[in-house]
Write a structure and sequence with these properties.
homotetramer, about 350 residues, seven-stranded mixed β-sheet, 11 helices, EC 1.2.1.38 (chains A, B, C, D), NAD(P)-bd_dom_sf (chains A, B, C, D)
Chain lengths: ~350, ~350, ~350, ~350
């Protein structure tokens, strides 16, 4: 495709990922969202459930019908819960749509692994093979012109962008990698439960799904691809009493006596020309608020001579770079556009 | 002036108002910020104190020199603490700059009132008379082509937009108006103090400056202008444990048996064609989050037959519609542009 | 009853009010909680749903059986949702239990009003007449030795303690009272819903149930009792992004030119000897955090000569003075004990 | 000493640690706080700066005078900033006072290490040798009857209680220990700064002092003592947008194929009879809120067969078990009393 105008549909518009796509695409110069879709609220205006969209989005929510979507759109974003995209994608592709899947259904190449970690029926193995994993700064050159992009998970995005340059350079021992990740609560979606009840989370900090999170095999799959041999990692997720933001604090044993300065240089080179990764100077580490509402991933380092380990801090906004923003970045790359189109906003601070 | 390109300078760039102007103007199609100015940090990059601007704003902070500003800019925004603009403005106008003052120095027409409520030396009386009060949806037609705009305060913006249509129509008794206002903490600026210390404000709700807030005479001055005779009001400010957002909950005795529906219609007509005021349908009231990060002011009503009073709820983002956003809206109006230029973003939710 | 040992049962132990009773009663010198009761979780340890009670409360939850309760307890606290206590109380009284109802079922003397505002079936009219409204500092002398105490609502407690001395003294005009109330989210209980979902409430401030809240008739009933003729009031509730705490900011026209100092003296006299109401000196207003976790109600004033109105600020912890704490205070008064027994803890700060 | 009545003084009463000591000691059956001391606010009532203490603590703050303290008290708690206690303690001991130091001045046995990590002048080496490190559940038997107790740091308390049983049993490799710690903001004290400014911390998550925190040598000193040979560890601190609570998430390679169940049993045995450590059953990990306001330290485990590592989660309230609470526990042990005296309160939830 080479055009300067794309019509897009969003399936799962009433979730936080979907509504963030609406927000971001509203200022994309080449994309028009022609259909917002929700299987549960078809026929109602989206502003009924999301009054912040009053007078901004006045059309009614559509149902999930591949042919009808194709009649309105060229590209469809899937911001659906796990297990839905696996079923929908064949018909969407069949209808001639480009698909960018934000759910996790097409990330793991192995159906068995998917089933083990997601406890859902996996997508067709051929489609899994066909889907391109859209970690934009690493695999961005693979998504041009493809039909099916699998958008990375929020934790994998923050973690992998923080690890890959060092892993690829052989500067850290992959066997020693430990990822301690923290996320704002919006990552859990809009479904109400005791686990996301205000009075339970406010003034509270908790770990969850320790050693059981479905992003573990996703991270390992990529690291294994980079290293060229199997990598396992320790990964822990925590819930922070805030709405947006992910920090991955990562630990690994350094090979070859590198310094903070070395890491800053290595990463600066690796990400040269990629606007959305910002490498912090020596002795500085990013905070989640510094990327809030934006598509940036900011990274900082601390090598400790005493222990021989490096601590890498990587932050993103889970709903932007960790979901809707990177999906749009992938659309840009797929279309051959500048990857920053529609995403050039400044983080909201404070 | 009639041009499609304006160079702007920001004095007070290292405060929250200044940094918000930088954020918003970064996506304005006709404005370039050519000078970011700070008397306290001249010569350093702004990203040093605000790392979220890393690689976005790499120039060094300028000092406060009217001639140097004029050499770089056509318009200057003053996002300075109270008492500074009063001194700066004469030289800035003299240098041939257009001035939009976000501080409160030019809001009150009476120097005596300013001195009484602000405890600072007032600006020159002629300049006070010259300054146009830029409450965009009410006085927007007065700012075209003027040299000095006084941007309204955050509380007055939320409160007056919620009151004026009813006051102007004679539907509520001005003598009975009570304004109970609540603000996020960013309104207090970036200066560290016990009163803005995290552990003191988190999980806390407090009132402050009861009957003493400097926005009281500003609100009364405008209401008096609308009504045509002196109005005094009761106004209370509270601090909410959140960063952004203002809600004014307002009470007044209804004249003439109006219903919720009547109020919705009255306000919808009053604000017809003004994109940034959204009137909620009967039985719905806006929350602060529904305008977060945007230039909207959302308003809702509840008439109580039992008491004969109406409760009006009005919300804004204090740093956008309550400061930087409305300042840009005023620039747009001053330049004869569409008032929404550079401000058409969707509120960030959640 | 005159004894120094009481066995207590708690119905609704798995709600926030119930679990707060458990916390507070754990340090009461004369009360032992012999049965924690939950209709929904009978037979399981309460620490399963509330791990903070691990090793503190290891017995299993009992079911709701009046005879079984009587076998274990002398007094029963009802911390149940609206509509339950109305049905339970006859059998509990019949079984010989003293009842302290924390739900709203026995607060309104008029069954019709209850039905109108609560949308539930009211309790028996004779029982409603029999129930003593336990606003401890005002009606505390009425609860001695009674069988059925109706514990006041959280908003009424904060509001009435802040209004009654002035209303009783004829210092403010009851017809002009406006109550702008704000509450932490725990007041909404533990039931998960979109309205209490973390990402929706964090960094947000909202009004709800404007002019429709069921605490309105409760407040009016008491004010009417104090004044001796019908009083209607305007009352608005807001949700603050915090867990605990209520502030009522109240407005009324002052009669007879009283000053801040006059109000401080009047209230200090009215509450003399009552440890749980603290009147702040002139020019000082309490914050919610200053009573956090404690049974205090703190009150401050600001008379405005310009408008002739007084602003009264009253704060409580909604789960303590607004629920479990005042219920225990009522038990103390009912038993003829010092009202502060088991409640003499310092607010948790910060 | 063997008595059932102790008079206590608190130096540094106007800090968060001091004011928490006041809160907790108010309900201690054997201790009376006879002097609250502040070098900066001598002669004023403490409730002026801490209105939550209104009518609770009405005496005036004393100055720092060892003889005057001795005239009023038997024991003195030092809740002072780093560097103060080192200077004060000789005179306090000389005056015949028992001293419990909550600052870090007496934790490190090596003056050189203290100087390196604290950047302050160390205490006298003999006094450092004399001071007993009061990690109550590990070294509690050493504090009986001593004159100088050094209360452990907040992070070391959470981390060491979570590590020591496994380290002592040889179940984890000390060389592989990585501690990822998170703290509420109250740990930073009451001093206002940009780093603790509400608008900067709210809706934000940050790391700080990576590999530079002064609690690193404290943790290593204890682990070295337990293991019997030098241990270095990787330790990172983060700031959570909440007031109270610490979580240490800790990683280490397991030796000998132990399971979650094994860890639960090992820790349950190690802490048998110690009320303030609660070991969670398999598959459960504590949240910070579950110990909020209390002296508990709760611990949970997850062994990952895939990586051969264990993840240990340990939580405390930084101001209680991490400061004032453990200091009182140490007083109890020093006096030969039950260690739980005055500390038997239930965590505040929610």
């Amino acid at each position: 495709m080479s055009t300067n105008k794309v019509n897009a549909a969003i399936v799962g518009s009433t979730g936080y990922g979907g509504v963030e796509l609406i927000r971001l695409l509203a200022s994309h110069p080449y994309v028009e969202v022609t259909s917002v879709i929700s299987s549960s609220s078809e026929g109602t205006p989206i502003a009924e459930g999301y009054p912040h969209l009053t007078e901004i989005r006045t059309d009614l929510l559509d149902g999930v019908d591949p042919q009808a979507i194709r009649a309105k759109a060229d590209v469809v974003f899937l911001a659906t819960p796990a297990g839905i995209a696996a079923k929908l994608v064949p018909d969407l592709l069949e209808a001639g749509l480009k698909v960018i899947d934000i759910s996790g259904d097409f990330r793991l190449k192995s159906p068995a692994l998917y089933e083990q970690w997601y406890k859902k029926t996996p997508a067709d193995e051929n489609l899994l093979a066909q889907a391109v994993y859209g970690l934009a700064e690493v695999y961005g050159d693979r998504v041009a012109d493809v039909d099916l992009i699998s958008n990375p998970g929020c934790f994998p995005t923050a973690s992998l962008l923080g690890l890959i340059p060092a892993v690829a350079a052989g500067w850290i021992d992959p066997a020693t990698i430990i990822i301690d990740a923290k996320s704002g609560v919006s990552g859990a979606g809009r479904g109400a439960s005791l686990g996301t009840h205000y009075s339970e989370l406010n003034e509270n900090f908790r770990a969850y799904k320790i050693n059981k999170h479905q992003h573990i095999p996703e991270i390992e799959q990529v690291l294994t691809d980079i290293v060229g041999k199997p990598v396992t990692t320790t990964f822990t997720t925590h819930l922070v009493p805030m709405t947006r933001g992910i920090m991955s604090t990562m630990y690994a044993t350094v090979i070859g006596g590198r310094t903070d300065k070395d890491f800053v240089e290595l990463y600066s080179q690796y990400y040269e020309g990629r606007k959305f990764v910002r490498v912090r100077p020596e002795g500085k580490w990013p905070m989640t608020k510094e990327v809030w509402g934006s598509n940036y991933c900011d990274i900082g380092f601390s090598v400790d001579e005493r222990t021989g380990r490096v601590t890498i801090v990587s932050v993103i906004d889970n709903l932007v770079k960790g979901a809707a923003g990177q999906a749009i970045q992938n659309l840009n790359l797929m279309m051959g556009w500048d990857e920053t189109l529609g995403l050039q906003f400044v983080p909201v601070y404070p």
